[in-house]
Amino acid sequence: MDTAVDIQGLNKSFGETRALEDVTAQIMTGQLTGIVGPDGAGKTTLMRSLAGLYVPDSGAVSVCGYDTLSQADDIHGITGYMPQRFGLYEDLTVIENMRLYADLRGLDTRSDSTLFDQLLTFTALAPFTGRLAGALSGGMKQKLGLACALMARPKVLLLDEPSVGVDPVSRQDLWEMVQALVDDGMAVVWCTAYLDEAERCQDVLLLDHGQILYHGAPGDLTERLNGRSYLMQNIIGNRRSALTEALQLADVCDGVIQGASVRLVLKEDCDDTPINAFARSYQATLVHTAPRFEDAFIDLLGGGPGGLSALAERMDVIPESEETMVRCVELTKKFGDFTATDRISFDVHQGEIFGLLGPNGAGKSTTFKMLCGLLKISSGAAEVVGLDIRRSPSDVKFQLGYMAQKFSLYGTLSVGQNLDFFAGVYGLSRAQRHQRIAEMIEVFELAPILERSPDDIPLGFKQRLALACALMHRPKVLFLDEPTSGVDPITRREFWTHITGLVARGVTVMVTTHFMEEAEYCDRVALVNRSQLIALDTPDNLKALVTDADHPEPTMEDAFIRLVEQQNRLMDAREAAA
Amino acid sequence: MRRMLAMTKKESLQVLRDPAALLIAFVLPPILLFLFGFAMSLDVDDVEVGIVLESDSRQAQSLAAAFAATPFLQAHPVRHRREVERLLVTGDLKAVAVIPADFDSLLLAGDGRAAIQIIADASNPNTANFTAGYLRGAFTRWLLAQQTPGRAEAGISLQQRFWFNPALESRHMLLPGSIAIVMTLIGTLLTALVVSREWERGTMEALLATPARVEEIIISKLLPYFMLGTMAAIGCSFLSVQVMGLPLRGSFPALLLISMVYLFPALGQGLLISTVARNQLVASQMAVFSGFLPALLLSGFLYDINSMPWVLQQLTRILPARYYVSSLQTVFLAGDIWHVYVRDLVAMLILGLTFFGITRLKFTKRLD
Amino acid sequence: MFWRDPKSRGMLLGVPFIQIVLFSHAATMDVKNVDVGIINQDSGRWSAELIQRVSSARFVGEVLHYENPEDFSIAVENGDILLGLQFPADFSRRVILGETADVQVVIDGRKANSGQVAFSYVSAIAGGLDMEIMSSNEHYVRPAQAEVRYWFNPNLEFRWFMVPTLIPIVSMMTALLMGALSIARERELGTFDQLLVSPSTPLEILVSKTLPALLGAGFVGCLCLPLTIFGFDLPVYGELWILVLALLPFIFSVVGVGLVISSLANTQQQAILGLFFMMMPIMLTSGFSTPVENMPEFLQFMAGANPLKYMLVVVHGTFLKSMSAVEVWDNVWPLLVIGGVTFTTAVVFVQRRLQ
């Protein structure tokens, strides 16, 4: 194997912040190399340095023998680079975007259309060549981006977080495409915050604070954890409170919900007696399970956040009631001839975490938006806390909190002013406002950043702030729209600690996500595909639906993909028959 | 070359699909021309004036009739002097001529005394000046017609001749200037917006990582706007000449040449702004303040450059629009005067080269 | 919200200042530094006297003498001189004989405006000379005159007209910008959805966008007041409090226009271009550059919906004319109507987009 990229003692600073510190590594051809690390670790800076877009402060990067400093033009000729927000022209069609990049890379598409056709088949974009890039779904956009980056068969392919906002089906497609390229001998660098992806790489560079913490095969790192990962099964009682309590044990390094079970990782050199005892208190069985890369990652970074949510402790307990918190009856939305949501019905009970899953463009966002009052309902009915959304939209809005994917904070206001603004929007009295804001600042530890703009605070703080703003008026139902998209595992754990705590206090949570680990936290999951509700059950039951001899232990992702594909086949067959 | 063609094609497609760009490039120019051609008329007509007739003599009535018959004036009788103030304050009347009770005797005095009083609302000095002038002129003509004794037909007589614009139509003056405004909008504002949009949306990052060279990126960005500008120049000229009656005394190739050369500094300025700003909001502000407003106020088409304070006069020297306006006025109104063209073309080329030079220095294929 | 962002704040305060300086100094109808060309074929006393008087006039810059008509023509064509005087050979002789003595005055029609003003200056000088010559003749009977009085601005200072108009124009630009960007900006940043899921109704949201714009633009307008009065030594004959009060309905009507643009725009760029698209006609048909009465009928009719048109009447009325509150009201109620219509339109548009 040849060295595709050689990084020697790379340093890069922006003002006071040192983005990369003395990074030295080699990336091989014919391999898939993952660059992983928490938010702010320097992943994007490294990618841009490899693409020759940043000049190193010291040290050197060479790609296929060309130096990024002096031979950047040669590098641009042999690398394909897909930035985080891929630079597709949204007002150009799929084929126009592809032609542009083909021409830019000196590819004659008229005389040699084979590559073009190959790429179109490869990305399955052939039926959409005439569509504007802006009108594509998230997954298709990333495929198009990949196709453009692949123009002229680069020797090195640099992908910066290509799977953010992409549904599991499309993500699987992306993976297969990239794997095929690697098999052809290309060097592919895949930068990601998702660790299940890192696990599939042959080589992993783990960055933290600009330094390499680990470089090698992911399996080698995971191996170190052998015997430290456990699954707590058959829990009697609430699995979420089990997790909360488990995370407070001195010996537990990390823990997450996995369907009806709780996954725990022990600290190094710790005995499993205490957790065995703990498991018994829940009458659960504790079994060893194979470690995952994510377990190793958290361990390497010094363990996850604790299980207690200071926030939840401050929230008033919402008295239990039998009332249905969210109810959809035959909910339908039509845009012209197109039915975006087709007669969807479900009930959500108090204290439930309810997941709304589905491929990009399947209609889950439309459903979500109708429930929040952002879209008008075409037919059917929706109730939140027993109130009809159509009849009393304002009353409904007092009962719900909403946190959007982009966090929707005002960059021109300081953190404190953001809190003040949202408290004001919900019409809190002056005294209440003061009290709530002070409370939020205390629980979320926002005091040191109060005067700063949300635009330049770390992602973790941004997420806390967005959550604080959504909770200011103590809503009974919390709507989360892809709340942890592109967020690293540690920040994500912290977020879910708060959500778990809130649910324990009686808050009901509705969540959409493309991230299947998040789906595991849900009590029930509604799967939406092609505008219809195709499955509604607990995560474990959904997994059971697709369990067979070939797939004895399907993951949530497997379940998602197979259920969606089943329905697609069914619908296609029905259409063909008609 | 193929890379450039590809990017040029892409840019053209984008222009054609952006409603806001189309609005500025195709809808605003005719509206602007129309407004400058019709709304912005400095030619005063139908001014509302009042006549206070305090004498009922035959002479006084004859003068009042003469005022009423004056073209450009709409005379209204005013019953009493006391009403004058209110009417002038509300702006119902722009001026009032008072014919006093002793008008006849004043007329005969023969010592150059004032026989009538003209009161003009000078809150708008221009209108006041014109209106008072019309009223005074009407009075003088009436005097002559009355054959009042003592008026010698002699003395110094100034024969004014307005070259290039004998009928003194302000439209002829304003239309060439408004073409310059349109070209500035397309060249500077639109260009600044589209290039900064690429930075903002992250498409520039992807472009930089391709083998395309900086010069190729710059030129291919500008070519479509160059074409758009040239098309706008032709369209605006056609509209001005065919619809608004502006003469074209110079040659069409000369008009095309100066317009194309003007696009050079205008596009350069837009590109420079977007390279410095990299943000649409800031870019549009900078384009308005460094491109549009100066072209409107300092280019010499609305206000005389020589009458400005020294500092502003010096500022106009680095203003491409100033040279373009000068050449445009010449080509439309005066004819092909190459001395003027060459002077202006050289200035525009130098400015254009400067803008592009700075842009080339600032624009690197790096993100830091 | 604008206020808390230093960049926006700089824009809001810096921009009006630049505008005032630029407009007040650049936009002048006064004519200065006129270069005059002379062809004198007369060798007598009177042409020399007239040339002498013109040369020493304040509006004249350089005086250039030409020997032959070709050079003179080229000078006019090249724009070297704005105005040229041609004296025929018998000029002085005819003056002495008491006959009509013609002077050709050639003016560059490309600059007809300043040319006209310059011509009127020259003709005043010639008239003065003429009068002196004639009054030396004892049989001369001076004809009756028309006495002209310029009310409200006795010296016809163009600045007295221009500078007060900057107060509404500057506050208008601020208000339009704040209004136009308000919703478009939130839409682009994604915060608009966050507002819509809160219990606020579209009406409340728009009111909350209007109030800061009203305050901001009002503040900018009030800031301009002392700047214009003291900076340019303007007289104030009317009541300033009436002006300040009238400024509010004016800003309200303009913010309404901005909000309509904003409710239609998806991005900030569209909002800015839309604002630009609206601003040009508003400025040009307001009477700011040329009187409304000079426009064709139907444009005058359209100008009836132009808030700036009414406000210019008010601002000149209060600065120069001591307009009474009742007379100001005649120009204020149309502003309230315009504001009401635009604001309602914006509310309807925002509600429609919620489909």
Q: Distance between the terminal alpha carbons of chain A, to the nearest Å?
A: 54 Å
CATH class of the largest domain in chain A: Alpha Beta
Task: State Rg of chain A.
Answer: 25 Å
Number of domains of chain A: 3
Estimate what percentage of residues of chain B fall within beta strands.
5-15%
Provide structural commentary.
The complex is a heterotrimer of chains A (578), B (368) and C (355). Chain A has 21 helices and 24 strands. In chain A, β9 and β10 (211-216) form a beta hairpin. Chain A folds into three domains: 3-221, Rossmann fold, CATH 3.40.50; 224-308, 2-Layer Sandwich (Alpha-Beta Plaits), CATH 3.30.70; 314-363 and 370-566, 3-Layer(aba) Sandwich (Rossmann fold), CATH 3.40.50.300. Helices cover 36% and strands 26% of the residues of chain A. Chain B is elongated, with a radius of gyration of 28 Å. In chain B, β1, α3 (58-69) and β2 (73-78) form a beta-alpha-beta unit. The relative contact order of chain B is 0.11. Chain B has helices spanning 2-17, 19-39, 58-69, 81-90, 103-109, 125-145, 170-201, 203-208, 214-243, 252-277, 280-297, 310-316, 320-334, 338-362, and strands spanning 47-53, 73-78, 95-99, 114-121, 155-163. Chain B starts with a helix and ends in a 6-residue tail after the last helix. Chain B folds into two domains: 2-40 and 170-362, no CATH class; 47-145, 3-Layer(aba) Sandwich (abc type-2 transporter like fold). Chain C has helices spanning 6-26, 45-55, 69-77, 91-97, 112-135, 158-189, 191-196, 202-231, 240-264, 268-284, 297-303, 307-320, 325-353, and strands spanning 34-40, 60-65, 83-87, 100-108, 145-151. In chain C, α1 (6-26) packs across α8 (202-231), α6 runs antiparallel to α8 and α6 (158-189) runs antiparallel to α12. At the A-B interface, α2, β6 and α3 of A face α1 and α8 of B.
